[in-house]
Amino acid sequence: MSLKFPETPEFTGLYKPSRVETEVFDLEIEGEVPSAINGTFFQVSPDSYYPPMLGKDIFFNGDGLVSAFKFESGHVSLKRRYVQTDRLRAQWKERRSLNGVYRNIYTNDPLAADNNTTANTTVLFHAGVLLAMKEDALPYALDPETLETLGIWDFNGQITSATFTAHPKIDPDNGDLLCFAYEAKGDGTPDIAYFEIDATGKLKKEIWFKAPYAAMIHDFAVTARHVVFPLIPLTVDVERMKAGGQHFEWQPDLPQLFGILPRDGSADDVMWFHGPKNGFQGHTLNSYEEDGMLQVDMPVTMGNIFYFFPEADGSVPLPETLSSQLMRWTFNLNGPGDSGADEHALQPRPLTSFPCEFPRCDERFAGKPYEHGFVLAFDPTLPFDETLGERPFQFFNQLAHVNVRTGETDAWYPGNAQCFQEPIFVPRSSDAPEGDGYVIALLNHLHGDDTEVVVLDSLKMAAGPVARIKIPFRLRMSLHGNWTPAEALAASHS
Ligand code: V55
Ligand code: FE
Question: Which pick of 11, 19, 73, 195 has the fewest CB atoms within 10 Å?
C-alpha cells in the first residue's frame, strides 16, 4: 500500500513533512551556548502525518508536532511529540488522512473525529501546562516535561468559546494570560470573546461582543488599558464551506478593520477603526499607549499573502508583487472616532524599509513603550542558490534586530541556501536592559537534511551565531514558539 506525499511545493523541500517523534539527549553543538540560557524553547510545526485525503492540502492543515529544546548549563536536548489530537488519533486508527479542506468539517470523512483542530500554530507554557493552540478550537494541554497530551483544554470548564487564539500574550507584570476567541460561537459567527486568565489558571475577565462580520483575527495586541483586534479581510461563509469551498475568502474591497476594547469596558465600549483596503495585517510586534495615543506595530502587506485563500474569482497576487513592511498604526482614543469613509482611512507609518515578518519583542516590555524588535527579514539582493528553483513560501534570509525608534538594524545573513523560522528573544538576565540578550531561531538548510538552532547575541547580530545546535534530521517549516525559563517550569512542579 502506497503512503506517499504529493510532489508539490506544499509537501517538498522546506515543506516536506518530518513526521519524526524522538528524543535526542545532548545535541551536537558548534560554538558555546551561554549557560545563562536556562530553560526550554517550545515550538510547534504543522506536520501532516498522512498524505492529504483530497490529494492536495495547505501547510496550515498539518498535524501539530511539538519540539522542546531544553537548554541547561550549555547543553541542549531535544524532545519531539505530536499533539495527540482526536483528529490525529482517528487517523492513526484508520492509517490514513480523514480530513479534507482546511477548517471545513463538511469535507471530512465520516470516520474523522468531531474535533477538527490540529493544535499546530503555537505552544506556550502557562499555569502548569503547555498549551498547544490553533485558532479554530480550544487548545490541547500537554505535559511540559514529557510532551504527553493531556487533552482538550477548557481551563477547567471556565472557557466556553468554540475557539481560542493561537496568539495569546502574557502580561509581564502578573503572568496573566491575555487571550481571545473569534468565530467564538462556531464557524462563521461574528462573535468575539476576550479573556484574562491569571497565573494560577483562574478566569478573571470575560467580555463578549460582535464584529460587523466574521473574518480572520489571527493575532492581536494588548496594552495597559486596551485590546486591539485586527480583522484581516479574509471572511467566512458557511454556505461556501458546505459546498466544499474554503473557510476563508479574500475580500479586496474590505478595509483592514480594527476593533478596540477597553480592558475595563464592555461590548458597548468597542470602537472600530479602518485602514486601507486590500491590505493584510500581519503579526503584532508590540503595542503601547502614550499620551492618549495607542500604537500598534506590525508588518503589513498590501495584498493577500495567503495564496491558498483566494478571492471569489480564484485570483491571488503574484508572490513577487507582495512585500510585508513593518508599520505603526496610531489610534487616537480621544479623537472624533472613525467616520468609516474611504478618504479617512488610517494610514500606517513605515518603521523600516525592508520586507519582514515573524516579529518578536522583549516580552518583559509587552504592551509597554519599547524600542527593540527581532524579525525575520528578506533581502532580495542577497545571493540565492538558483539551483533550488523558486524561493519557498515564507522565505526569509536574514535574522535582524531592529530599533523601532531609531530605525537602526543589525542583521545576519546565513548563506545562499538557508532560511529562518520565527525567532525568540531570551534576556541576558532578568534585569538586563531591554533587548539585551540572545536571539534563538531555527535555521533550515535547503540542500541538506540538517536543521540547526542558532543562538545569536542580540547586540552583535551581524557577527553571526555564538552557537549552532545541530539537529540530525530535517525539521519542516513551522510557525511559532515560546521560551519558558527553567525556574518557571520548576515552580509548576513543586
Ligand atoms: C495562520 C496559521 C494557521 C492558521 C491560521 O499564520 C492562520 C497564520 C498554522 O495554522 O490555521
Ligand atoms: Fe501566527
Answer: 73
